[in-house]
Amino acid sequence: MPKRTLFIVIEGLDRSGKTTQTAILHERLVAAGHDTKLMKFPDRTTAIGKMIDSYLKSESELDDHAIHLLFSANRWELASTITQTLLHPSPITVLCDRYAFSGIAFTASKPADIPFEWCRAPDVGLPAPDLTIFLDISPETAKERGGYGEERYEKEEMQRKVRAVFGRIGGEMIASSERGDEEHASLAQGGRGRWVMIDAGRECEEVAKEIWTLVEPLVKEGADTPIGKLWIDKGLK
């Protein structure tokens, strides 16, 4: 099949520098001649996104199951946009600040004790990233950064639990890629579909440099595999 562009996701705890690093990477990609569509989840501009925004600012209350499904619906609202962009005749890279992995990590960390598998199920079949960069930072370090605590989930204990769930997700993604399972062949081939953890507790410039070193050669090469679908072969139809 002809080459296509890459779908890159940057994940991490709150105040890990995700938005900053996503913006820096976007600028570098564009400067290097790669047209890039920048996306962010939740997308607070849609009707569903506005409900999520109100919840995150603690201006409204929703059942934990209901808000989780709204987060997922917000991603599904834009799933076709991601796919169409990646397959566009004019090459356009998709760069995303947060994705389904955040949805799982935050809901599974709540006191409601919602099962991990239930949290993952609504996102089964979403377009799968070719590369996920996880910005790892301790909750203690994140707490020292400006603006911490402004939104609902920015509590140290909550962030510690979220970090642990992200560890589980990353471990599963890495194991699948390393095994080269048939069910993940479209992602594992060529080292794509990778989950890469980066120490985000360092200076911004150091983190940005490591991200660029990782991303630049992959974007130049492009992808010659179909767009994957998240967890579609795990029996979670």
UniProtKB/TrEMBL annotation:
Pfam families registered for this protein in UniProt: Thymidylate_kin (PF02223)
UniProt xrefs under CDD domains: TMPK
SUPFAM superfamilies in the cross-refs: P-loop containing nucleoside triphosphate hydrolases
Organism: Crucibulum laeve
Family: Belongs to the thymidylate kinase family.
Enzyme Commission number(s): 2.7.4.9
A Gene Ontology molecular function term of the record: nucleoside diphosphate kinase activity
Signal sequence range: none
Gene3D superfamilies: P-loop containing nucleotide triphosphate hydrolases (3.40.50.300)
UniProt keyword Zinc-finger present: no
PANTHER family: THYMIDYLATE KINASE
Gene Ontology process terms (BP): dTDP biosynthetic process; dTTP biosynthetic process; dUDP biosynthetic process
UniProt protein name: Thymidylate kinase
Recorded superkingdom: Eukaryota
Enzyme class: transferase
Pathway named in the protein's UniProt entry: Pyrimidine metabolism; dTTP biosynthesis
NCBIfam families assigned: DTMP_kinase
Cellular component per GO, a single term: cytosol
Record domain Thymidylate kinase-like: where: 10-163
Keywords, alphabetical: ATP-binding, Kinase, Nucleotide biosynthesis, Nucleotide-binding, Transferase
